[in-house]
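Hi V.,

You were right to ask for the full record rather than a summary. Here it is.
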Amino acid sequence: MQIPRINPQDLEYILNPKAFINAHDFPTLDDLVDEVKRLDSDTLAYKQMREQDIFLNNFEPYKYYANKTFAFLDSIISQGRECALRRGVGAKLYGHERDLRYAKIVNNAYKKIFYKPRNTFRSFRSGIKNIFKK
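Predicted structure:
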């Protein structure tokens, strides 16, 4: 089992090491399990860990993400309507656009697929009717 490492420079905040159990601090998985068992049995140590702040340097995630969201929306709104309007080409839009562009081809294919068997059956049925009328 391999636990991924996150480069500290990639994080915009610093996690408090006293608030979490970092698996990279233990040489083996058994040592990690022993630490979890110790915290589970020692209520005082568990309570102290649980009461620690999650982030260091007074980082407040709600304010941080509110500011990031505001900056993102502000960058869209400040561009103006024409620049900010973006439409992706999803599968449904792509299919609709293709059908409009190639409507004649699609209609002909539709007719070949659905009308040919129907017309064949009709001619067969009329042929049988003509045989029995005689």
